[in-house]
Known about the structure:
The protein is an alpha+beta fold. It has a single domain (3-133), classed as Roll (Nuclear Transport Factor 2, Chain: A). Helices cover 50% and strands 24% of the residues. It has five helices and four strands, in the order H-H-H-H-E-E-E-E-H. A hairpin with a 5-residue loop joins strand 3 and strand 4. Helix 1 runs antiparallel to helix 2 (23-41).
Amino acid sequence: xxxxxxxxxxxxxxxxxxxxxxxxxxxxxxxxxxxxxxxxxxxxxxxxxxxxxxxxxxxxxxxxxxxxxxxxxxxxxxxxxxxxxxxxxxxxxxxxxxxxxxxxxxxxxxxxxxxxxxxxxxxxxxxxxxxxxxxxx
Length: 137
């Protein structure tokens, strides 16, 4: 099972738990996808993962709870403005652009939620690409 498929299963399971209480049906799938999702997420910067007090799965559930019918398009554990955050880009069917939800990796609280239209999303992607290409001194 690929990490992307595990993430989709996890997102479906969380939405199912929020919409309807079918714990006995969802729990086995949820546990399996949590393990795979966490393993794939942890391949980022191990120092940041070790520093975070909130698990990625908890932060993801919090972020998805902020955006009705949303699906996580991408996620990142990063330090932004001195805070360690989980940043989620969440797509909503029938809505252009993405909703970005930032969850504090130390407290689990939502610290920002913004909507980025397609133009802003491209601009941010270009800036991220430039940052990754820029050689370190």
